[in-house]
Amino acid sequence: MIDSKITQTVWENIGVWWDDKVGDGDAFHRTFIFPIIKRLIEIEKGQKILDLGCGNGSLIRELYSENVDFLGIDFSSSLLDKAKERTPHVQFELGDLTDDNLYQNLKNRGPWDSILCSMVLHDCPDLKPLSENISRLLRIDGEFIFSIPHPCFNMPLYMSLVHKDGKLIADGGTITLTGYSQSQHFVGKGKPNQPIEHHNFHRPIGTLLKTFFDQGLVLTAYEEPVLRDLEHNYLTPENLWSKLSEFPPALICKFKRIK
Ligand SMILES: C[S@@+](CC[C@H](N)C(=O)[O-])C[C@H]1O[C@@H](n2cnc3c(N)ncnc32)[C@H](O)[C@@H]1O
């Protein structure tokens, strides 16, 4: 079993490289992630928003409003340093989402109106501590929004085939899909030329959603953004997802705590 000490070491080591690539959100985030989260999130003046696995803080910068209280949590101090450097007006703290001890402290500072977890769940070997605590951290009617590389159209393909073997087997609008139905661990590159491969934990969509349903959360939005339908496309024509415009590379879900 890969534990989070191992995944943390990788994120510590690639933090500076990742920040340089992502900046205030790369083309993928700007095309497929930010617009959807901005449409789904219900932010009001005076509210408290927690961004779990905040990386260099790009999502917080995208959503920022001075009337809202943001807190970003990540276990990579190299990425948190970049988050603080780029966003000195927001609070960022070190914390491991797979560690139960993180959540008591966050609970004492809640309840939270909105909890975000963007492109992180697939990095976590164990989702139990996170899923068991989401409801406890949220106010009633509060929301939890996650985005993730699409477990069907992106994860197995992207991680194991495109970058690892350097082959583009997704071409001409066709995806050859392998290994969807089992939860499994991959090591691979999240971005081309990434200097160190990182760990990814693939879960079929049903398994992933059940993790949160079992905690009483109710799914209120399920988004599979497809290039064709989006208002802005920041991708270059060479980008894999420009070639696969019929397929959603990300899945974005919103849940509510109803009791
Ligand atoms: C793909 S990046 C996404 C970062 C940011 N949310 C974004 O969308 O740009 C994954 C982030 O999750 C963080 N992460 C992964 N596993 C974590 C864990 N167990 N606890 C805290 N942070 C974690 C990594 O350090 C990294 O910043």
Which value, in Å, is the CA radius of gyration?
A: 17 Å
Return residue spans where pLDDT drops below 50 for at least 5 consecutive residues: 157-161, 163-168
CATH topology: Rossmann fold
Major sheet: arrangement of strands = 3-2-1-4-5-9-8
The 3D shape can be described as: globular
Mean pLDDT: 90
Tell me the number of structural domains. 1
Q: Name the helicity range.
A: 25-40%
Number of helices: 9
CATH class: Alpha Beta
CATH-scheme architecture: 3-Layer(aba) Sandwich
The class by helix and strand makeup works out as alpha/beta
Task: Give the CATH H-level superfamily.
Answer: Vaccinia Virus protein VP39
Tally of extended strands? 9
| End-to-end Cα distance | 34 Å
H/E series, N to C? HHEHEHEHEHEHEEHEHE
Give structural notes.
The protein has 9 helices and 9 strands. It is of the alpha/beta class and 259 residues long. The chain has a single domain, classed as Vaccinia Virus protein VP39 (Rossmann fold), CATH 3.40.50.150. The strands form 2 sheets. It has a 7-stranded mixed sheet, with helices on both faces. The chain is globular, with a radius of gyration of 17 Å. S-adenosylmethionine (SAM) binds next to helix 1 and helix 3.
Summarize the structure.
This protein has 259 residues and is of the alpha/beta class. It is built from nine helices and nine strands.
